Automatic annotation (TrEMBL):
One of its GO terms (biological process) is fatty acid beta-oxidation using acyl-CoA dehydrogenase. Pfam families: Acyl-CoA_dh_1 (PF00441). Residues 168-274 form the Acyl-CoA dehydrogenase/oxidase C-terminal domain. GO terms for cellular component: cytoplasm. The lineage of its organism: Bacteria, Bacillati, Actinomycetota, Actinomycetes, Streptosporangiales. GO terms for molecular function: acyl-CoA dehydrogenase activity. Keywords: Flavoprotein, Oxidoreductase. InterPro entries: Acyl-CoA_dehydrogenase, AcylCo_DH-like_C, AcylCo_DH/oxidase_C. This is Acyl-CoA dehydrogenase. It comes from Actinomadura montaniterrae.
Protein backbone atom coordinates (compact mmCIF):
# COMPACT_ATOMS: atom_id res chain seq x y z
CA UNK A 1 0.00 0.00 0.00
CA UNK A 2 1.49 3.35 -1.08
CA UNK A 3 -0.65 6.27 0.02
CA UNK A 4 1.64 9.07 -1.20
CA UNK A 5 0.56 11.03 -4.25
CA UNK A 6 2.48 10.30 -7.42
CA UNK A 7 5.08 12.85 -8.51
CA UNK A 8 2.88 13.66 -11.52
CA UNK A 9 -0.07 14.50 -9.26
CA UNK A 10 2.13 16.53 -6.93
CA UNK A 11 3.52 18.51 -9.87
CA UNK A 12 -0.02 19.08 -11.16
CA UNK A 13 -0.89 20.50 -7.73
CA UNK A 14 2.11 22.85 -7.87
CA UNK A 15 1.07 24.00 -11.34
CA UNK A 16 -2.45 24.61 -9.99
CA UNK A 17 -1.08 26.77 -7.16
CA UNK A 18 0.85 28.85 -9.70
CA UNK A 19 -2.20 29.15 -11.96
CA UNK A 20 -4.51 30.32 -9.16
CA UNK A 21 -1.87 32.76 -7.97
CA UNK A 22 -1.45 34.19 -11.47
CA UNK A 23 -5.23 34.58 -11.79
CA UNK A 24 -5.42 36.72 -8.66
CA UNK A 25 -4.52 34.46 -5.76
CA UNK A 26 -5.94 35.89 -2.56
CA UNK A 27 -7.94 38.48 -4.50
CA UNK A 28 -10.11 35.81 -6.13
CA UNK A 29 -12.28 35.38 -3.05
CA UNK A 30 -12.32 39.12 -2.37
CA UNK A 31 -13.54 39.83 -5.90
CA UNK A 32 -16.14 37.09 -5.68
CA UNK A 33 -17.52 38.54 -2.46
CA UNK A 34 -17.82 41.98 -4.07
CA UNK A 35 -19.34 40.60 -7.29
CA UNK A 36 -20.99 37.24 -6.52
CA UNK A 37 -22.34 36.81 -10.03
CA UNK A 38 -18.78 36.74 -11.41
CA UNK A 39 -17.37 33.97 -9.26
CA UNK A 40 -17.72 31.31 -11.96
CA UNK A 41 -16.09 33.67 -14.47
CA UNK A 42 -13.20 34.32 -12.09
CA UNK A 43 -12.34 30.65 -11.57
CA UNK A 44 -13.57 28.98 -14.75
CA UNK A 45 -10.68 30.12 -16.99
CA UNK A 46 -8.13 28.74 -14.51
CA UNK A 47 -9.86 25.36 -14.42
CA UNK A 48 -9.98 25.37 -18.22
CA UNK A 49 -6.27 26.20 -18.42
CA UNK A 50 -5.49 23.29 -16.10
CA UNK A 51 -7.80 20.90 -17.96
CA UNK A 52 -9.46 20.25 -14.60
CA UNK A 53 -12.84 19.20 -15.91
CA UNK A 54 -11.22 16.71 -18.27
CA UNK A 55 -9.99 14.72 -15.27
CA UNK A 56 -11.78 11.44 -14.59
CA UNK A 57 -11.34 10.84 -10.86
CA UNK A 58 -13.99 8.11 -10.92
CA UNK A 59 -12.36 6.05 -13.62
CA UNK A 60 -8.63 6.61 -13.29
CA UNK A 61 -6.55 6.33 -10.11
CA UNK A 62 -3.86 8.74 -11.32
CA UNK A 63 -6.45 11.36 -12.22
CA UNK A 64 -8.09 10.97 -8.82
CA UNK A 65 -4.75 11.89 -7.25
CA UNK A 66 -4.47 14.88 -9.59
CA UNK A 67 -7.99 15.95 -8.60
CA UNK A 68 -7.04 15.78 -4.92
CA UNK A 69 -3.93 17.89 -5.55
CA UNK A 70 -6.04 20.45 -7.43
CA UNK A 71 -8.56 20.65 -4.57
CA UNK A 72 -5.72 21.26 -2.13
CA UNK A 73 -4.38 24.06 -4.32
CA UNK A 74 -7.85 25.63 -4.49
CA UNK A 75 -8.14 25.51 -0.71
CA UNK A 76 -4.78 27.27 -0.32
CA UNK A 77 -6.33 30.42 -1.81
CA UNK A 78 -9.90 29.82 -0.53
CA UNK A 79 -10.93 29.73 -4.20
CA UNK A 80 -14.60 30.81 -4.23
CA UNK A 81 -15.90 27.94 -6.33
CA UNK A 82 -16.94 24.33 -5.56
CA UNK A 83 -13.94 22.74 -7.27
CA UNK A 84 -14.13 19.43 -5.40
CA UNK A 85 -17.85 19.12 -6.02
CA UNK A 86 -17.37 19.71 -9.75
CA UNK A 87 -14.56 17.16 -9.98
CA UNK A 88 -16.56 14.44 -8.20
CA UNK A 89 -19.55 14.81 -10.51
CA UNK A 90 -21.37 11.67 -11.72
CA UNK A 91 -22.47 11.18 -15.31
CA UNK A 92 -25.33 13.48 -16.27
CA UNK A 93 -24.64 16.22 -13.70
CA UNK A 94 -22.31 19.18 -13.30
CA UNK A 95 -21.39 18.36 -9.73
CA UNK A 96 -21.94 16.17 -6.69
CA UNK A 97 -23.00 17.39 -3.24
CA UNK A 98 -23.03 15.36 -0.04
CA UNK A 99 -25.90 16.69 2.07
CA UNK A 100 -27.76 16.22 5.30
CA UNK A 101 -31.16 14.93 4.19
CA UNK A 102 -32.97 16.85 6.93
CA UNK A 103 -31.47 20.25 6.09
CA UNK A 104 -29.74 20.10 2.71
CA UNK A 105 -27.48 23.06 1.95
CA UNK A 106 -24.26 23.74 0.07
CA UNK A 107 -22.00 26.62 -0.95
CA UNK A 108 -23.39 26.75 -4.50
CA UNK A 109 -25.45 29.96 -4.49
CA UNK A 110 -25.70 31.74 -7.81
CA UNK A 111 -24.19 29.02 -10.01
CA UNK A 112 -26.09 27.92 -13.08
CA UNK A 113 -25.20 24.25 -12.74
CA UNK A 114 -27.09 20.99 -12.35
CA UNK A 115 -26.36 19.06 -9.15
CA UNK A 116 -26.68 15.51 -7.98
CA UNK A 117 -26.87 15.14 -4.21
CA UNK A 118 -26.25 12.07 -2.08
CA UNK A 119 -27.42 11.97 1.51
CA UNK A 120 -25.35 10.49 4.29
CA UNK A 121 -27.67 7.48 4.41
CA UNK A 122 -27.01 6.77 0.73
CA UNK A 123 -30.00 8.26 -1.10
CA UNK A 124 -29.32 9.87 -4.44
CA UNK A 125 -31.29 12.97 -5.42
CA UNK A 126 -31.41 15.71 -7.98
CA UNK A 127 -30.69 19.02 -6.26
CA UNK A 128 -31.63 22.58 -7.13
CA UNK A 129 -30.15 25.56 -5.33
CA UNK A 130 -32.55 28.08 -3.83
CA UNK A 131 -32.05 31.81 -4.05
CA UNK A 132 -29.46 32.90 -1.46
CA UNK A 133 -30.89 34.33 1.75
CA UNK A 134 -27.95 36.62 2.43
CA UNK A 135 -24.85 38.15 0.84
CA UNK A 136 -21.62 36.14 0.58
CA UNK A 137 -20.18 38.18 3.43
CA UNK A 138 -22.49 36.41 5.87
CA UNK A 139 -23.42 33.25 3.96
CA UNK A 140 -20.10 32.25 2.31
CA UNK A 141 -22.27 31.34 -0.71
CA UNK A 142 -24.23 28.73 1.27
CA UNK A 143 -27.84 28.26 0.24
CA UNK A 144 -30.57 25.72 0.85
CA UNK A 145 -31.30 22.96 -1.66
CA UNK A 146 -34.51 21.44 -2.97
CA UNK A 147 -34.11 17.69 -3.39
CA UNK A 148 -35.99 15.35 -5.69
CA UNK A 149 -35.42 11.59 -5.35
CA UNK A 150 -33.47 10.13 -8.26
CA UNK A 151 -33.42 6.45 -7.25
CA UNK A 152 -30.82 4.54 -5.28
CA UNK A 153 -28.48 3.78 -8.18
CA UNK A 154 -25.48 1.51 -8.04
CA UNK A 155 -22.89 4.22 -7.31
CA UNK A 156 -24.27 5.76 -4.11
CA UNK A 157 -21.55 4.34 -1.86
CA UNK A 158 -18.85 5.57 -4.25
CA UNK A 159 -20.63 8.92 -4.58
CA UNK A 160 -20.58 9.28 -0.81
CA UNK A 161 -16.92 8.32 -0.45
CA UNK A 162 -15.69 10.53 -3.29
CA UNK A 163 -17.99 13.41 -2.36
CA UNK A 164 -16.61 13.43 1.19
CA UNK A 165 -12.93 12.89 0.44
CA UNK A 166 -12.24 15.56 -2.20
CA UNK A 167 -13.68 18.47 -0.16
CA UNK A 168 -11.45 17.35 2.72
CA UNK A 169 -8.48 17.93 0.41
CA UNK A 170 -9.78 21.47 -0.15
CA UNK A 171 -9.95 21.94 3.62
CA UNK A 172 -6.43 20.52 3.91
CA UNK A 173 -5.20 23.25 1.55
CA UNK A 174 -6.80 25.84 3.84
CA UNK A 175 -4.99 24.34 6.83
CA UNK A 176 -1.70 24.46 4.89
CA UNK A 177 -2.22 28.17 4.29
CA UNK A 178 -3.33 28.93 7.85
CA UNK A 179 -0.13 27.35 9.17
CA UNK A 180 2.01 29.21 6.63
CA UNK A 181 0.37 32.56 7.44
CA UNK A 182 0.76 32.01 11.18
CA UNK A 183 4.40 30.97 10.89
CA UNK A 184 5.11 34.08 8.82
CA UNK A 185 3.26 36.27 11.33
CA UNK A 186 5.13 35.06 14.42
CA UNK A 187 8.49 35.37 12.65
CA UNK A 188 7.82 39.00 11.72
CA UNK A 189 5.86 40.28 14.73
CA UNK A 190 7.90 41.38 17.75
CA UNK A 191 6.98 41.61 21.41
CA UNK A 192 9.25 42.60 24.30
CA UNK A 193 12.04 43.17 21.80
CA UNK A 194 12.04 39.76 20.13
CA UNK A 195 10.08 37.86 17.50
CA UNK A 196 6.99 36.04 18.74
CA UNK A 197 8.44 32.83 17.30
CA UNK A 198 11.14 32.86 19.98
CA UNK A 199 8.63 32.40 22.81
CA UNK A 200 8.29 28.82 23.97
CA UNK A 201 4.52 29.05 24.39
CA UNK A 202 4.14 30.19 20.78
CA UNK A 203 6.28 27.29 19.58
CA UNK A 204 4.15 24.82 21.55
CA UNK A 205 0.96 26.18 19.99
CA UNK A 206 2.38 26.06 16.48
CA UNK A 207 3.59 22.51 17.06
CA UNK A 208 0.13 21.47 18.23
CA UNK A 209 -1.44 22.96 15.09
CA UNK A 210 1.11 21.34 12.78
CA UNK A 211 0.64 17.91 14.39
CA UNK A 212 -3.10 18.17 13.73
CA UNK A 213 -2.55 19.35 10.17
CA UNK A 214 -0.01 16.64 9.33
CA UNK A 215 -2.24 13.98 10.87
CA UNK A 216 -5.16 15.09 8.73
CA UNK A 217 -2.87 15.00 5.68
CA UNK A 218 -1.86 11.38 6.35
CA UNK A 219 -5.47 10.32 6.79
CA UNK A 220 -6.49 12.22 3.63
CA UNK A 221 -3.94 10.22 1.65
CA UNK A 222 -5.19 6.96 3.15
CA UNK A 223 -8.86 7.75 2.45
CA UNK A 224 -7.98 8.70 -1.13
CA UNK A 225 -6.20 5.35 -1.56
CA UNK A 226 -9.26 3.61 -0.09
CA UNK A 227 -11.45 5.20 -2.77
CA UNK A 228 -8.90 4.34 -5.47
CA UNK A 229 -8.82 0.73 -4.33
CA UNK A 230 -12.64 0.46 -4.35
CA UNK A 231 -12.59 -0.79 -0.79
CA UNK A 232 -15.89 -1.72 0.80
CA UNK A 233 -14.89 0.46 3.77
CA UNK A 234 -14.24 3.54 1.60
CA UNK A 235 -17.34 5.41 2.76
CA UNK A 236 -16.48 4.78 6.42
CA UNK A 237 -12.87 5.83 5.78
CA UNK A 238 -14.19 9.02 4.15
CA UNK A 239 -16.41 9.78 7.15
CA UNK A 240 -13.47 9.15 9.49
CA UNK A 241 -11.31 11.48 7.40
CA UNK A 242 -13.98 14.17 7.53
CA UNK A 243 -14.15 13.90 11.31
CA UNK A 244 -10.35 14.12 11.60
CA UNK A 245 -10.19 17.05 9.16
CA UNK A 246 -12.83 19.18 10.87
CA UNK A 247 -11.33 18.48 14.29
CA UNK A 248 -7.89 19.45 12.95
CA UNK A 249 -9.40 22.61 11.46
CA UNK A 250 -10.79 23.60 14.85
CA UNK A 251 -7.30 23.35 16.39
CA UNK A 252 -5.42 24.98 13.49
CA UNK A 253 -7.74 27.97 13.19
CA UNK A 254 -7.94 28.40 16.99
CA UNK A 255 -4.15 28.57 17.20
CA UNK A 256 -3.87 30.76 14.11
CA UNK A 257 -6.38 33.29 15.46
CA UNK A 258 -4.84 33.29 18.93
CA UNK A 259 -1.37 34.03 17.56
CA UNK A 260 -2.61 36.64 15.09
CA UNK A 261 -4.69 38.36 17.76
CA UNK A 262 -7.37 40.83 16.69
CA UNK A 263 -5.55 41.41 13.39
CA UNK A 264 -6.51 37.88 12.32
CA UNK A 265 -10.18 38.93 12.13
CA UNK A 266 -9.51 41.95 9.92
CA UNK A 267 -9.97 41.92 6.16
CA UNK A 268 -6.33 42.93 5.77
CA UNK A 269 -5.35 39.48 7.06
CA UNK A 270 -6.05 36.66 4.63
CA UNK A 271 -6.52 34.37 7.62
CA UNK A 272 -9.88 36.08 8.13
CA UNK A 273 -10.99 35.11 4.63
CA UNK A 274 -9.73 31.55 5.01
CA UNK A 275 -11.55 31.18 8.30
CA UNK A 276 -14.83 32.58 6.99
CA UNK A 277 -14.93 30.71 3.69
CA UNK A 278 -13.76 27.51 5.35
CA UNK A 279 -16.92 27.39 7.45
CA UNK A 280 -19.06 25.56 4.85
CA UNK A 281 -16.43 22.83 4.54
CA UNK A 282 -16.30 22.48 8.33
CA UNK A 283 -20.06 22.58 8.98
CA UNK A 284 -21.67 20.92 5.95
CA UNK A 285 -23.13 18.37 5.62
CA UNK A 286 -22.59 17.99 9.40
CA UNK A 287 -20.28 19.49 12.00
CA UNK A 288 -17.91 17.49 14.20
CA UNK A 289 -20.55 16.13 16.61
CA UNK A 290 -22.94 15.13 13.83
CA UNK A 291 -20.16 13.53 11.80
CA UNK A 292 -18.97 11.57 14.83
CA UNK A 293 -22.51 10.33 15.49
CA UNK A 294 -23.00 9.36 11.84
CA UNK A 295 -19.69 7.48 11.76
CA UNK A 296 -20.48 5.66 15.00
CA UNK A 297 -23.85 4.50 13.69
CA UNK A 298 -22.33 3.45 10.38
CA UNK A 299 -19.59 1.38 12.02
CA UNK A 300 -21.68 -0.26 14.70
CA UNK A 301 -19.38 -2.74 16.46
CA UNK A 302 -17.06 -3.30 13.49
CA UNK A 303 -14.49 -0.60 14.13
CA UNK A 304 -12.19 1.03 11.59
CA UNK A 305 -9.30 -0.50 9.67
CA UNK A 306 -5.99 0.97 8.57
CA UNK A 307 -4.50 4.05 10.27
CA UNK A 308 -7.97 5.14 11.41
CA UNK A 309 -8.31 1.99 13.49
CA UNK A 310 -4.72 2.24 14.74
CA UNK A 311 -5.30 5.82 15.87
CA UNK A 312 -8.44 4.76 17.69
CA UNK A 313 -6.61 1.91 19.45
CA UNK A 314 -3.78 4.23 20.55
CA UNK A 315 -6.32 6.68 21.95
CA UNK A 316 -8.05 3.85 23.85
CA UNK A 317 -4.71 2.82 25.43
Amino acid sequence: MNIDLSEEAAEYGRQAVRAFEAAGGDDLVRQAEREPKRRAALVGPVLDELGALDLDPRGDAAELEAAAALCRAAGYFAVPFPVAERLSRPAGADGLLVVDGARPAAAVAGLDLSWTAVTLDGRRCDAAARAPEGPPRTSAFVTGLDLRPAGAGGECARDLALGLVLPCWTLLGMLDRAIDLTREHVLLREQFGQALARFQGVRFQLTEAEVERSGAEALAKYALWSVQDHRGEAADDALALRLAAVEAADVVFRVAHQLHGAFGFCDEAFLSWLSRYGQPLRRLPLGPAGTRDRLTRSLGRRGLTGPFGEARERAAR
